[in-house]
Each structure stands twice: as structure tokens, then as C-alpha cells.
Amino acid sequence: MYTEIKKERRLILFALLVLAIYLSPLFILQENAHIRVHDNLDSNLAWYKVLAESGEMFGALESTIPQIINGVPRNTFGTEYSIIVWLHAFFPTMIAYGISQALTRVVAFFGMYLLLKRHFLPGNQWLFLQVATALAFALTPFWPSGMLSTLGMPLALWAFLSIRKGEGTAKDYMVLTLMPFYASIVLGFFFFLSAMGILWLVDVIRGRGWNLRFFLAIAYMTVVFMLVEYRLVYSFLFSTEPNSRDEYFHASLPFWRAVRLTLKNYVLGHTHVMTVHGLIILPVTFIAIYFVCNKKLWKQERLFVFFFILNFLLSLWYAFWFYKGWLPLTKIFHFMDTFNFARYHFLRPMVIYVDFALALMIISRQGLSWSKTAKGLAVLQLLILGLFNEEIIYHKKPTVKEFYAVELFEDVKRHIGLEQRDYRVASIGIHPAVSQYNGFYTIDTYNNFYPLAYKHQFRKLIEKELEKNNTIRKYFDTWGGRCYIFTAQLGKRYMIKKDSKRQLKDFQFNTEVFKEMGGRYIFSAIPINNAEENRLSLEKVFESKSAAWKIYLYKTL
Fold first, then answer.
1. CA 339 to CA 194: how far, in whole Å?
2. Exposure pattern of 431-465 as b/e (b: 16+ CB <10 Å)?
3. Are 57 and 80 in contact (CB under 8 A)?
4. Rounded to an integer, what distance in angstroms lies between the CA atom of residue 273 and that of residue 150?
């Protein structure tokens, strides 16, 4: 017994050491680190800084943050009771980011380890597979601002399954209480909790009793989430002002494109819940299903078979949520457009890695050589995940320092010489988040939702450009989360680096509306050839060795 405990501790310590090495570039390099841009540097990290400096962290439900679009609703930035908000309020951006990554991955590791050890792979003989699978799960390249929205699910499931068995302790209820402070209900836990509700209902139908303790635990965590996310609840249920999501249109794919998306998602996954499962995990599960079929182990391995099928069904659901066959229903039930029910696929990271562990266990049972093969496959998956470290996969992107270009924008600020709150700016070929991070007041933005009236007003600035390019027209009109100065020439390119030789030609911009909205300056990543036709005057060109961008500063005439 003592030997087993010692072995467990060694494996766990080794796993934590691997996590520390994996995270080390964030703490060593800090602003010189390479991290994800999409839905990270281009949005969330700037949002946290803007919120922290706005004085509106605890603002009223109807309050606004004037730095963005002349007053973006405070509720757009979510709850002030999220730990990630406080990390960015107390620490510099990259320290907060590193702590958040470490916290999420450590919880993910222990959550998956406890789940496998207690509920799916019980027994000391599976210790290596328990730890290896948990470590692999913790190394997945998750969406950073999702926090524990997906990677916290195993820990929550561990607690719920214990309560369901009547074995719940104070630790389980503590998990259900604390998780909502570092996870999002719309980015994962709405779908997880509804899945728990379905599990409870299935138990009732199958004659296992009402299990009120399990039901009340689900209700309890839901209530805690509602209290933490009170701004979201208010905006969704009680706000009467139309917002940009009211024009979100998702049901557009023909049948065969939905089929293709199903297969793509099943093999490759999704950017917000990357699992890196296509090379090793998927073949491993197919090997295991072969043994199940060949030896007729359906009853013995019913959990593995369940998760194997569920994995595919989640991809099917995700893809067919965008199938145009939903159109008649979306016209009747508007919430089907404003709420993204496709996100049930956010359950997939947990489902895939639990199924991976079960598949390795099945393979191990086929004999000594197969047992060694299973361990080797687990190690191989870990090695592949190591190559997906942010510092590796984003090494061609700008560093954090180059992206936010603080020195460059400080030069621009000094040149303008006015209080930033006294004028508004917009960007071309650069994410507005960069200007926002540097304290500028922007009329352009990237946000989950904002007033629909503002979207319509902003559209007047670029309506002639949208007419020339069907891609950006659909992108803006049927979503509009990126309220950017789109151009027909650049399309959806909004990271034009300083070494670009492009020039913006035949740009058609409504400068009068821009000035009515308070706009005075445009930060363009490339020169505008017909600036005078748009009543814009080139003030100065700014460049810095530490910045990824060159700024052509244009002022309205």
C-alpha cells in the first residue's frame, strides 16, 4: 500500500513538473512571449485592462464604459465576480495571464485525475493511465479566457457523480460553489449542467428514484452561476434594448456542407476547444472499438461505447446547428439565433479524454505487449501536445509587446497632444483592441454584443466598401461582433504588419458620419492613396523597433 502511494506521489509530482516546464515561457518571457491572438490578444486581454481602468468594475446594470463606441454597456464585459477579472486588475497583463493559465491547467489535471481514479478507471493498476491522461488533458491548447469553462468539467463531474452515488462530501459541494467564480455558464457550463439534468432524468425514467440530493446539487450550482453571472442574466432576460446579436444569423449551411463540417469537427476539433485528438486519440479509440466488437464486450465496456458515440453526436450537433433547415424555427423562436446552442460541443474535451483513458484500459487488457503499447501511446500523445505550446505554434505571430506596441502608441498620443477622452479614433488593418489597450477611445470594437442602433450607425461609415465585397458584407451584417472599418481591398485582414507593401486604393469612407460619431483620427496600418477624397489628411507616420505595426496617422479635415 505504501509503495502504491509513493508511486502515485512520484507520478503526480512528475506531471506537475511537466506543467511547470510547459508554462515557464509565459513567466520567463512575459511580454516577449508569443500567445494566441484570436479571441485573446485581439479582445479579451484588452477588455480586462479597459474594465480595470474604467472605474466601472462594479458599475450599475445600466452603466456604460465611455472608452469604447461612445459608451459600450458595462454588462458586455461580464461579471466582476470572475477571478480572471481580478487577476488582470491586480497584476500586469502577462503575469495575470500566466497565473490564469497555471490555475486552469492544475485544476484540469487534478479534476481529470480524480474523475478517472474514482469513477472511470478505479484501481491502482491503472495509475499510469490515470495520471498520463489527466496530464494530457491539462496540456490541451484551450481558449485562455474560457478559464475552467471546459477544463473544469471533469472536476465538476467528479463531484456530481459522487453526490449522485450518495457519497458526496463537503469537498464536492465546495467544488460546485467555487467553480462558477472561474468559469462561464455560456462558454461551457450551461451545456454541462443541462447534461447533468438529462442524466438525472434518465435515472428517474430507468426507475432509480428521484435522487433529490443529485437534483438539488444541479439546481444549487445553477443558482450560484446565475448569481455570479447576474449581468448576463439581466441582459438576456430583462434588457429591452436591441443589441447586435439580434442580427446574428446562424442557419445558413446546406445539408452536404453540414455533413462536411461534422467530419471536420470530429477529426480536427474547434478553435475554442482544441483537443489535438486526430493523430493519436482517434485511432486509439477505433482500435479499442475493434476489440469491443471482436470480443463482444458491449456490456462490459458500455461506458467506453457511450462516450465513443457521444463524441460523434456532439460533432454532428455542432455542425447541424448551422444547417439551414432550422430556419423556420429560428423565425418563430428568436432566442435560437441569439444563443449559441452549438456549444454543446464544448463537452467534447472531457468526453474525448475520458474515452481515451477507457480505450487505453481496453487495449491494456489484451495482454502484456498491448499494455506496453497503451502506455507508449499515452506518452506519444503527451509529446504531441508539448509541440502545441503557445510559444511554438504562435512563434510567427507578434509577441505580446509587439502586438500592443505601447511605446509606439505613446508616441502617437504625445503627437496628438490632447486628453484621450476628448477625441475618438478608429483603426484600419489593426485590431481596435490595440488602441483600447493603450487608452484610446475608439468608435470601432470587437465585443460579444453592443447596441444594435450603434451597429446600424457604424455601417454608414463603410457601406460603400461592404457593397464591393460580399464576404465582409455578410460577415458584418449577419454577425457584426467585429465592428471594424472593413475595406473591400483588405477584406478580413486586420493584422497588417509594418513590413507590408500594400497601399489602400479606392477607399470609400463616410467621413461626415465619422465626425458625427466623434471620430477625429484614423490609425491605418497602410497608406491611404485617396485620403484627400475622403477628407482625411496624413499627419505623420509612426514606427518603432518594438512594434509589429506602422501607424499612418490620418486626421479628418
1. 15
2. bbbbbbbbbbbbbbbbbbbbbbebbebbbebbeeb
3. yes
4. 8
How would DSSP label each residue in 76-111? GG--TT-HHHHHHHHS-HHHHHHHHHHHHHHHHHHH
Give, to the nearest 10 degrees, the angle between helix 153-164 and helix 190-205.
20
Dihedral angle at the C-alpha atoms of 456, 462, 467, 470, nearest 10 degrees? -80
First to last CA, the chain: 81
Q: Give me the residue label for grid cell 472593413.
A: 486
Q: What Å distances lie between residue 450 and 64, 154, 453, CA to CA?
A: 11, 33, 9
Return the DSSP state at 399.
P
299 by DSSP, 3-state: which?
coil
Cα–chain center distance at 283:
27
**Residue 303 confidence (pLDDT) above 90:** yes
Residue with cell 460533432: 315
Q: Which three cell numbers stand for residue 271?
A: 478553435
The cell for 240 is 429591452
The three-class DSSP label of residue 471 is helix
224, amino acid identity: V
Helix pair angle (44-54, 83-90), 10° resolution = 70
The CA distance from 83 to 145, in Å, is: 11
Contact between 534 and 509 (Cβ < 8 Å):
yes
Distance of CA 368 to the CA centre of its chain: 41
CA distance 420 to 50: 13
CB distance 129 to 364 below 8 Å: yes
C-alpha dihedral, 490 to 496 to 502 to 504, nearest 10°: 50
- Helix (H), strand (E) counts: the chain: 25, 8
Here the cell at position 66 is 465611455
At which residue does the C-alpha cell 508511486 appear? 7
pTM of the predicted structure, to 2 decimals: 0.93
Which H or E run contains 556?
Answer: strand 551-556
Q: Give tens-digit pLDDT for 7-16.
A: 889 999 999 9
500 and 526 in contact (C-beta within 8 Å)?
Answer: yes
Instruction: Give CA–CA dist 306/391, Å, rounded.
Output: 36
Task: Compute the distance between CA of residue 28 and CA of residue 19 in angstroms, rounded to an integer.
Answer: 14
CB 411 within 8 A of CB 553: no
**pLDDT tens digits along 386-433:** 999 999 999 999 999 999 999 999 999 999 999 999 999 999 999 999
CA angle 297, 298, 302 (to 5 degrees): 115
